[in-house]
Amino acid sequence: MNKNNTLKRFCIIFFFAAVALPVFSQDNAGMYPKNIRVGVAAQGFVAYPGRLGASLDGKLMLRGNRNNDIYNEIVITAKAAHAFANNAGNVFSAFDKGKYDNISSLFLLAGYRINFGLPVPYSKNIDAIGGAFLEFNAGITYVHHIDEYYLAQVFEENQPVTAAKLRTWAPAISGVAGYTVSKKLDVILSYTGAWPVHSTGKVQQSFIGAGLQYNF
Predict the structure, then answer these.
(1) Looking at the domain that runs over 28-215, which CATH code has it been given?
(2) Which of 68, 75, 73, 74 minimizes the C-alpha distance to 118?
(3) Cα(209)–Cα(83) distance, rounded to whole angstroms?
(4) Which residue from 18, 119, 150, 188 lies 20 to 30 Å from 102 (Cα-Cα)?
């Protein structure tokens, strides 16, 4: 009788070890960021040639890959950037038909975010060192800027400014390096560049930014 009870207990313990322990040992899905995340990034930037500006990004992040070492995401970004006027114009004036020499632009980008290790805030391992990430994006931008050659001509001839000649589409790239400091907050450093298709006399977009990204 005692032998039977002992055998039953051994079988129960063995079953628990064979079935339950592997479940406990595998990755906890709750440790990872959600499959679909939305983020908002605000940055200040220094733009070429010698301008200051600000940008606001909206990001949709979709899980691209996950394993024990890395968590990757596909990223779609809508970005609005504004380089302030240099001619003492209204700092916040944008898309103003050439009234001030500011540069305003809208970006639509797609890219990939590589997270180096599971971010520390998501890990139960006190020795975790993850949190750094790189993000690479490419897409298009709609630029409303000053064409200095065009403006000089219309001012000399006392002609009205044609806003369409101050706008152009351009290919664009963007790179982001950052660190996840909490489940909701990233610290980021970025580069964004855009080159108008017809570049004669038009301002090239090129700026380095720094700021914060809040993830919902």
Answers:
(1) 2.40.160.20
(2) 68
(3) 12
(4) 188
The residues facing 150 across adjacent strands are none
pLDDT digits (tens, 9 = 90+) for 86-113: 665 556 655 555 566 678 889 999 999 9
Question: Is residue 65 pLDDT above 60, yes or no?
Answer: yes
Q: How far is CA 40 from CA 77, 209, 213, in A?
A: 10, 15, 6
Calpha distance 203→49 (Å, rounded): 9
Is 56 buried (19+), middle (13-18) or exposed (0-12) by CB count in 10 A? middle
Q: Answer for the pair 82, 94: CB distance below 8 angstroms, yes or no.
A: yes
Residue 70 contacts residue 117 (beta carbons within 8 Å): yes
Decide: 41 and 57 in contact? Cβ < 8 Å: yes
User: To which residue do tokens 């970005």 refer?
Assistant: 79
- Report d(CA 165, CA 146) in Å as an integer: 9
Average pLDDT over residues 101-130: 78
Token pair recorded at residue 61: 């992040």
H or E element at residue 105: strand 103-116
Residue 143 has pLDDT above 60, yes or no: yes
What predicted TM-score, i.e. pTM, was given to this entire model? 0.72
Model confidence at 135, pLDDT cuts 50, 70, 90, reads: very high
